[in-house]
Amino acid sequence: MNKNEQKAAEQANQLRLKEIAQLNKVAYKADKVQRKHLSSDSIPEADYTTTMRSKDNLLEIENLKSYFYTDAGTVKAVDGVSIDIPASKTVGIVGESGCGKSVMSLSIMRLLQGPVGQIVDGSIRFNNNNRVVDLTRLPEEKMREVRGKEIAMIFQEPMTSLNPVFTIGKQLDEAILLHMPGKNKDEVRKMSIEMLETVGIARAEGIYHSYPHELSGGMRQRVMIAMALSCQPKLIIADEPTTALDVTIQAQILDLMRKLKDKISASILLITHDLGVVAEMADYVVVMYAGRVVEQGTALEIYKNPLHPYTIGLLNSKPVPGKIVDSLYSIPGQVPNPINMPDYCYFKSRCDKCVAKCGGKYPEMLAISETHKVACWRYEEEAAKCQKK
Predict the structure, then answer these.
(1) At CB < 8 A and 24+ separation, what contacts does 62-65 make?
(2) What's the mean pLDDT in 168-189?
(3) pLDDT for residue 33
(4) Is 104 in a helix, a strand, or coil?
(5) Which residues contact residue 125 at a Cβ distance below 8 angstroms, ignoring those fewer than 6 apart?
(6) Whole-angstrom Cα distance, residue 112 to residue 103?
(7) Could you tell me which of 35, 235, 244 has the C-alpha nearest to residue 140?
(8) Is the alpha carbon torsion for 230, 233, 237, 242 positive or negative?
(9) Can you tell me the distance from the alpha carbon of 247 to that of 257, in angstroms, rounded to the nearest whole number?
(10) Taking residues 214-231, what's their average pLDDT?
(11) C-alpha to C-alpha distance for 378 and 201, rounded to whole angstroms
């Protein structure tokens, strides 16, 4: 590269950085206005109440867009995701690291750290005691009433989620006292110990007085589940609840979650990489790739008849017991850079089943059956036939 070309490249880079800085400035200003609005006490109820698309759903996510405004550009972590979570059902979200699973869950809880991370569009409708609210518009004070009580989250790493300087009992008591202010200390202590016993912790009273570092990984995960279920929420968001646990403890945790879900008639949004866990736990499966949903359906439809090339690749990459192979299958290529994503299908560069239309606009979600949908142009004719029926 000669001096003129180098100078031109530097000028172009400086111009790009100025454009990014200007975009970030606008985004930060919009975030400031939005936060000021949501923290106001005078927001009319009509601004955040709404109606559900289906009375059978507990939560409906529609066209959710959550972006991060960075110095390198805008990261579209969640870019137009639409998911339904039926009441008393388990929905599994699968996809490789960086596809937007955890960002989507944090968006539901309204825990994105602004002004860098923001929900820029879409709605999250939640059926809260037969009163439907849009969580993206809910005032912060009312959101705090929902967060932890009506919607609880089991975070990915219990050691970093639990405070190391407080006992397990103090942290459990705090969660209960926050949402049940009428309880006295003795009643709350009794409830905390009962929750520890419910999640299968032996010597619950001793654990109540212990610190997080004194417990094993499995025990800490049980404590996190106890904390999440202490107020009997309607929706439990479980973000990689079995990460770093051995298979024996993993099986116990999953069995525990299943029993407790049935006991309190809750729904579960299960986020995981493990396709085996999803097959065992989920009623419905949603496959995400690069911030978008590429396929969704019942667990039987996804596992028996996967349609999207990415879903097929995920299932092929899972080891099969009793099958001897020279090497495990891996999907070729890499996930595209989340900044300045292309207009066409994000999986195109890694797909061996492309058609001519794949180079055009991003594919829409095509309905193959009442519950099975896929974002792939290869099934356009099949979706058209289904629509005629």
Answers:
(1) 62/122, 62/123, 62/124, 62/125, 63/121, 63/122, 63/123, 64/104, 64/107, 64/119, 64/121, 64/122, 64/123, 64/124, 65/119, 65/120, 65/121, 65/122
(2) 90
(3) 66
(4) helix
(5) 50, 51, 52, 53, 57, 59, 60, 61, 62, 132, 133, 134, 135
(6) 8
(7) 35
(8) positive
(9) 15
(10) 88
(11) 50
